[in-house]
Write a structure and sequence with these properties.
Elements lengths: L15 H17 L18 H10 L8 H12 L19 H7 L14 H18 L7 H11 L1 H7 L6 H14 L15 H10 L21 H10 L9 H4 L16 E4 L11 E7 L2 E4 L8 E4 L5 E5 L3 H6 L5
Length: 333
């Protein structure tokens, strides 16, 4: 759900047999790729970072060996959802959510205009990268993964990392490290085929049972709503049915896992649509891919849940949902 999505309906043989063949195919493909390796890269996935900030994230994400552009993007998304005007109850400010005391010490003049402005992404994004690298330098002699140690220092302080010779045994800190490193995968451009989703077949089965159900803006399929859905309500419910909890809106669901290329789509992948193909935050429609160039989706008011083609001019990209990826998403951005 973002806005109503209007697209010409293609005539499709929408019998359940069509979907069941695809569901079986998911298991076969998953079996064939079980030994594959999911990939990552310091390159950014298409549109994952808003175009206004992409070059900044790409440049400053390579400031030191402990970070990369995808990791920096994950931190910015986790902190503010790329909102340069974000302000928390704790007075954290801007796209990187610096508190005033930390900004006074670690803020840098990224654009060289003589002003260190926490509200200016041209300063705040370089400052976030610089702060990460400074933390990494504090804990560079600690055993273990330098990136994980840097993230642990960000959360618990460098002293704790040095004391415990790596990520300290604090549940909050270990969860933070896992969250950011997992979330980074949704911002990276994969360099190899990503692993198939284990829950894909059952998610499709749920969605296909809803074929013919009338669309409802804001619909979550509850009894008081007559079991009706909008686009992201349907995809959320489909994955909820297999124990994977997705965010409510389409543009947040995009970050629930890595992003396969169009030619690498598998049934169960979420497919996304937007009028701005440079910014995942502008995504306004989502469906669940079933194969053969088609998805099941709840398209718009006045329509019903149905099969629709995905190869339209507003096709943005796809996400292969993972359980860890969904868990890593912030509850509000």
């Amino acid at each position: 759900m973002r806005k109503a999505w209007i697209v010409a309906t293609a005539a499709v043989g929408a019998g359940t047999g069509f979907v069941m063949v695809l569901v079986v195919g998911v298991y076969l493909v998953a079996g064939n790729l079980a030994g594959g390796i999911g990939g990552g890269s310091v390159g950014l996935a298409k549109g994952a970072v808003p175009a206004a900030y992409q070059s900044l994230v790409q440049k400053w994400g390579n400031l030191c060996a402990a970070i990369n552009p995808a990791l920096l993007a994950a931190q910015l998304y986790q902190e503010s959802g790329f909102n340069p005007n974000a302000k928390s109850p704790a007075q954290a400010q801007g796209i990187a959510q610096f508190i005033p005391g930390t900004w006074a010490t670690h803020g840098v003049d990224g654009d060289g205009d003589g002003v260190r402005d926490v509200w200016n992404p041209n300063d705040a994004i370089p400052s976030a990268a610089s702060y990460d690298c400074e933390l990494a330098s504090y804990v560079k002699n600690a055993p273990g993964n330098p990136t994980e140690n840097m993230l642990a220092a960000y959360n618990a302080g460098a002293y704790a990392v040095i004391k415990y010779r790596g990520v300290p045994p604090y549940a909050e800190t270990r969860n933070y490290v896992k969250t950011i490193t997992t979330l980074a995968k949704s911002f990276a451009a994969p360099v190899t085929r990503v692993d198939p989703s284990k829950q894909a077949a059952a998610a499709i089965t749920y969605a296909q049972k809803k074929l013919g159900t009338p669309y409802l803006w804001g619909g979550n399929g509850t009894a008081d709503q007559g079991g009706r859905f909008d686009c992201s309500g349907l995809t959320k419910a489909s994955y909820d049915s297999v124990g994977v909890s997705l965010p409510r809106v389409a543009n947040d669901q995009y970050n629930a896992g890595p992003h396969p290329k169009r030619e690498e789509l598998l049934p169960g992948d979420l497919v996304f649509f937007s009028d701005d193909l440079t910014n995942s935050r502008a995504i306004r429609h989502v469906g669940i891919y079933v194969g053969g160039g088609y998805m099941i989706d709840a398209p718009r008011p006045g329509a019903v849940i149905r099969f629709d083609p995905i190869d339209t001019p507003d096709y943005f990209g796809a996400t292969r949902v993972t359980e860890d990826g969904a868990k890593a998403l912030p509850t509000s951005v």
